[in-house]
Write a structure and sequence with these properties.
- The chain is about 20% helix and about 30% strand.
- By secondary structure, the protein is an alpha+beta fold.
- It folds into two domains: about 5-45 and about 70-80 and about 235-265, no CATH class; about 85-230, no CATH class.
- The strands form eight sheets. Strands 7, 8, 11, 16 and 19 form a five-stranded antiparallel β-sheet that branches. The protein has a three-stranded antiparallel β-sheet with strand order 9-10-12, with no helix packed on it. A three-stranded antiparallel β-sheet has the order 13-14-15, with no helix packed on it.
- About 25% of the residues are buried.
């Protein structure tokens, strides 16, 4: 088999995956809390053509000869840099300043994590509960869903910088309700598994979720009410990356075309 055909084909496949990743970033440029993804590559095995042995007259050869057999995607890594804050008209919109994640109870009963703080008060049982736009329950600092009685007015609920839910008393003085929005951190956020709907799941690569309320030594995140965190996608960078990936794809296709022409000429030699 001709190595260049398979090598160039692997390059085309890798660059197609790269373009898919870039397209996903651009599609989520306005997604709240989205973190840009970067495709990373690694080379495949090398084939030895000449080893670093001694020559016929006993002299040591300084280098050998190896030919690479292509490339493949090694990972698609999320970059958890801080996104820009933009103002929201909702009192239940929260942006995280720092490395934290909100805790979300999924429909399957499992706990997930998100940077999307666009929350809502929904009817839950006989009272209210703080949920995401999909109806998933938001967790407090003890890992329990945030539930409120039906006597609360959502427009009067405020959250301080520590994430404590507060409400005016009879004298219109804002008092804590004893409920704090839970925030968790991870040793390796890039190891989180992407679940869709702006949700992440903890894995062995990410490490266990560390509760900011109970774990010592963590730099606490700051919650800002009335703001949401935008995506950290840089459109100009993504367009440049797309052009580079397109050119690399084109060059690999040219290598396949050149190999095909060379093989055609070789087949015509016997005529």
């Amino acid at each position: 088999m001709v190595r260049s055909l398979w090598t160039a084909a692997s390059g085309m496949i890798a660059q197609q995956n790269n373009v898919d990743t870039i397209a996903n970033n651009l599609a989520n440029v306005n997604t709240t809390g989205y973190k840009t993804e970067v495709a990373e590559f690694k080379s495949l095995l090398y084939q030895d053509i000449q080893a670093k042995t001694t020559s016929g007259n006993g002299e040591t050869k300084p280098v050998g000869a190896q030919v690479g057999l292509g490339v493949r995607n090694s990972s698609v890594t999320s970059r958890f840099t801080q996104g820009s804050f933009y103002e929201s008209s909702s009192n239940l919109a929260f942006a995280i300043g720092g490395d934290g994640f909100f805790g979300i109870r999924g429909q399957d009963g499992n706990t997930y994590y998100s940077r999307n703080g666009d929350f809502h008060l929904s009817t839950y049982g006989t009272g209210l509960a703080l949920t995401t736009s999909d109806g998933n329950l938001v967790l407090d600092s003890t890992g329990k869903p945030i539930e409120l009685g039906g006597s609360y007015v959502s427009s009067k609920i405020v959250v301080n910088g520590k994430g404590e839910l507060c409400y005016p008393d009879e004298n219109n003085n804002v008092q804590p309700l004893g409920i704090t929005i839970g925030v968790w951190q991870f040793n390796n956020p890039s190891g989180l598994e992407k679940m869709g709907d702006s949700l992440f799941a903890a894995t062995g690569a990410s490490g266990q979720a560390m509760n900011e309320a109970t774990t010592n030594g963590l730099i606490k995140s700051e919650l800002r009410q009335g703001y949401l965190e935008g995506s950290n996608v840089q459109v100009a960078d993504e367009m440049v990356n797309m052009i580079v990936a397109q050119r690399a794809y084109e060059l690999n296709s040219k290598a396949i075309q050149a190999t095909d022409e060379m093989m055609s000429q070789a087949n015509q030699l016997r005529r």
